[in-house]
Specification:
Elements (H helix, E strand, L loop, with lengths): L3 H10 L15 E3 L7 H6 L3 E9 L4 E8 L2 H11 L3 E2 L5 E11 L19 E3 L3 E6 L31 E2 L8 E5 L2 E6 L3 E5 L7 E4 L7 E6 L5 E5 L3 E5 L7 E4 L5 E6 L5 E5 L2 E2 L6 H6 L3 E2 L2 E5 L7 E2 L2 H4 L8 E7 L5 E7 L3 E7 L7 E3 L4 E2 L3 E4 L2 E10 L7 E9 L6 E2 L9 E3 L2 E5 L2 E4 L6 E4 L10 E4 L2 E5 L3 E5 L1 E3 L10
Parallel strand pairs: 5-7
Antiparallel strand pairs: 1-4, 2-3, 2-5, 6-7, 8-38, 9-10, 10-11, 11-12, 13-14, 14-15, 15-16, 17-18, 18-21, 19-20, 21-22, 23-24, 24-25, 25-26, 27-29, 28-29, 29-30, 30-31, 32-33, 33-34, 34-35, 35-39, 36-37, 37-38
């Protein structure tokens, strides 16, 4: 599954909600050809969305107007729509959206075209069609070729020379992070464990039988760390994890948090996730949180202040879906927010939470926030050349010192699958560090083991799936090739 899919779904979700005709009923479409992925698009490593306006005479399609989309994909979409035939209905004009997506393992829903054979495309007729391919894509799929050309002779870990190794941990973990050469796990019963030898052995640092499950863990530096979990639980350490103290940030689960130091932090509380209509959204950047609260502290969690502006400000209260939070210092904090089916944005404060304002980055779709070297960072997809039939999406990294003025960072060689405070997963066994002026890569074993929950400590990496596995992490200047099956 690819990060670009998030961009496609967000694009479809963020169209302003206006009244429009959605065309004849699905049952009135009597015949259609099953759409296929254009071979030229596969060769180009091209994915994207095509928006059409379709007009019928009550029996068949009489006119197709291209609203947006890459010409190669648009041609395939238009040719397919022209095969549609309808039962009698009143002449009408309605929107149709095609998604062309590259993925390795999808759950495909099928429609049945004329002749009774199954169609591998997902046909939510008459308004949405999703066409997928598993064909191998170039390593620089959908990147801006003028910025980052396709690479050759890329390094990789030869098959059989290194593998992921299952390791024994004190509990079944929910999340992992790393600081320096130290790994940290969190999980049920307030479980926290660390490894100083590359994940080979683990020491239990904190556990409370019958305690809440911890959902996330992170360190501000080598000594200051926090872990958040169910029922508002927040654990903190100031002595490199030897001792942990508990605070309560609220009644709902701590889904995201960020601390600038031992005292100044921000947390996102919620017990409800938005269920995306397309499962890639959840797998790529995480589902939005609903009925959320955001709290600030300036004394390490002893006292909390609610960010009421998110529910009272005339602009911000419309953004009811929250994703992540970030805090630079006692005065500067960010919240990634979304107005359902309309727009993404950031709620920004530069005065310690006294006032908040909405900041939007034109044509950028990014929901996860991180802090690195005194700046905010976010990674996602940028929509280029929208004036030319809708344009296309490319990976983007952005950073800002104040959350208001954002600058472009390094543009990666391919779409992101998931990102954390250390970098972004590109494809199986390949991680990209986009922080700073120059990118660097980590080559990890490529056997399908790596999940979106991972961390790198020194020259070792660990990942959490059904079990916890660890393996080598080699720094490279080029990404290792994308596996054929990825």
């Amino acid at each position: 599954m690819r990060y670009l899919a998030l961009f496609l779904i967000l694009c479809s979700c963020l169209i302003p909600a206006t009244a429009q005709n959605y065309g004849p009923a699905k049952s009135s479409i009597t015949t259609f050809d099953c759409p296929t992925y254009p071979p030229k698009a596969e060769a180009m490593g091209l994915q994207g969305m095509v928006e059409l306006q379709v007009t019928t005479d009550g029996h068949r399609v009489t006119n197709i107007k291209l609203i947006s989309g890459h010409p190669v994909l648009a041609q395939a979409a238009e040719e397919n729509v022209n095969t549609w035939q309808f039962a009698d209905h009143a002449p009408t004009t309605f929107p149709v959206t095609y998604f062309f997506i590259h993925q390795s393992d999808s759950e495909k829903e099928s429609a049945t075209p004329e002749g009774g054979s199954k169609c591998s495309a997902k046909m939510d007729l008459p308004n949405t069609v999703t066409v997928t391919t598993r064909a191998p894509f170039p390593a620089c799929a959908n990147c801006d070729k003028t910025v980052e050309p396709l690479r050759s002779q890329q390094p990789h870990i030869p098959a059989g020379s290194a593998r992921w190794t299952e390791v024994q941990v004190p509990f079944k973990p929910t999340n992992i992070t790393a600081t320096g050469t130290m790994f940290w796990l969190c999980g049920p019963h307030e479980g926290i464990a660390s490894s100083a030898d590359g994940g080979n052995t683990w020491a239990l640092k904190h556990q409370e039988q019958g305690g809440k499950t911890l959902l996330g863990i992170n360190f501000t530096d080598g000594k200051i760390g926090h872990a958040g979990g169910e029922a508002g639980l927040l654990l903190s350490t100031s002595d490199a994890g030897e001792n942990w103290s508990a605070q309560t940030a609220g009644e709902k689960a701590v889904q995201a948090f960020s601390f600038a130091d031992a005292d100044n932090g921000i947390v996102l509380l919620s017990d409800e996730r938005h269920e995306p209509s397309f499962p890639m959204l959840d797998q790529v950047q995480g589902a939005a949180f609903l009925n959320s609260e955001v709290q600030l502290t300036n004394d390490g969690g002893k006292h909390w202040r609610t960010v009421s502006a998110l529910k009272t400000d005339d602009q911000l209260r419309l953004y009811t879906e929250l994703f992540s939070v970030a805090m630079l210092d006692s005065r500067n904090a960010l919240v990634a927010i979304r107005r359902p089916k309309v727009a993404l944005g950031f709620a920004v404060t530069t005065d310690g939470g006294t006032s908040w304002k909405l900041v939007q980055i034109k044509d950028v779709y990014a929901t996860q926030l991180f802090v690195h070297d005194g700046e905010y960072w976010t990674f996602g997809i940028e929509y280029l050349n929208r004036q030319n039939h809708g344009g296309y999406g490319v990976p983007v990294s952005l950073h800002a010192k104040d959350g208001v003025t954002w600058e472009h960072g390094v543009r990666g060689p391919g779409e992101f699958w998931s990102c954390n405070s250390q970098g972004c997963y590109l494809w199986d066994g390949t991680v990209e560090d986009l922080y700073g002026k120059h990118e660097r890569f980590f080559a990890l074993p490529q056997d399908g083991t790596m999940t979106k929950i991972w961390a790198i400590a020194g020259d070792r990496a660990c990942t959490i799936g059904e079990t916890t596995k660890c393996g080598p992490a080699i720094v490279t200047q080029q990404p290792q090739p994308r596996p054929q099956q990825d």
